[in-house]
Design brief:
The chain has 232 residues and is α/β, with parallel strands linked by helices. The chain folds into 2 domains: 107 residues, D-Maltodextrin-Binding Protein, domain 2; 94 residues, D-Maltodextrin-Binding Protein, domain 2 (3-Layer(aba) Sandwich), CATH 3.40.190.10. The chain is built from 10 helices and 13 strands. A 6-stranded mixed beta sheet has the order 1-5-2-6-13-7. The radius of gyration is 19 Å and the shape is elongated. InterPro entries: Solute-binding_3/MltF_N. This is ABC transporter substrate-binding protein.
Length: 232
């Protein structure tokens, strides 16, 4: 689903100067997944703290933008192939760096292990890499599991809700990823008291913009990063 946010006409009416050092009149195409509580679609409207922060930044930049809500793997693929200009919210990894560049981080999170309390699994056991684990498909946290030799399942779930379900069904010993995103689903299912969290690494997130777009608009990220400080 696409949500079009046209700020240009509103800002012009309010007397903002639209002479900027990048192509603000060009609507940028962004992609995101449905990932409460960070950013999600509710009653046809984009919601969440990430959306509020981006709206604040783009208002200061006088920049119009178009958001399409798709799966996380597709959100990244669309930018890689040139269908979209950027995707959010994402943490840094070298694969994404091949086709895009990350902004200044504006979303805080940790990557954590989540296990069933009834299983009394320790951090040391998880670090032995013998237990079956998973994150969600095409996520940076899943890439981290693969890169570091963990015993991950062959077909990771597309959605965080499904990830929580396979933990509850004991198909894996632990799930791994954004503590804030996973906590949201545990809270929704009212099972957080059954789950233990083990924090692993601090992984703030930002907006990835394609090299293709930045080649045409070299000042965009500098201005974005500068304006983001007013919105944090």
């Amino acid at each position: 689903m696409k949500i079009f946010i046209n700020l240009i006409s509103v800002l012009a009416l309010c007397g903002f100067n639209l002479n900027v050092s990048y192509s603000a009149e060009r609507v940028i195409k962004l992609t995101m997944d449905d990932r409460p509580p960070f950013h999600y679609l509710q009653d046809g409207k984009l919601k969440g703290p990430v959306i509020e922060t981006l709206q604040c930044i783009f208002t200061h930049m006088q920049q119009a933008y178009d958001v399409e809500v798709v799966s996380w793997s597709r959100a990244q693929h669309y930018v890689k192939v040139g269908y979209a200009d950027g995707f959010f919210a994402a943490s840094h990894n070298k694969t994404r760096d091949q086709y895009a560049r990350l902004s200044y981080p504006f979303v805080d999170q940790y990557w954590s292990w989540f296990t069933l309390k009834s299983k009394t699994i320790s951090k040391k056991q998880l670090e032995s890499k013998s237990l079956k684990v998973s994150s969600w498909k095409k996520s940076n946290s899943q890439h981290w599991l693969e890169k570091n030799g963990y015993n991950f399942i062959n077909y990771p779930p597309q959605e965080i809700s499904h990830l929580v379900n396979i933990l509850r069904a004991e198909r894996v010993a632990a799930i791994f990823g954004s503590n804030i995103a996973i906590y949201q689903y545990l809270k929704r299912l009212r099972v957080f008291d059954q789950i233990k969290e083990i924090k692993v690494v601090h992984k703030p997130m930002g907006l990835y913009m394609s090299h293709r777009y930045l080649k045409e608009n070299p000042e965009f990220l500098r201005v974005f990063n500068e304006k983001s400080k007013k919105c944090l």
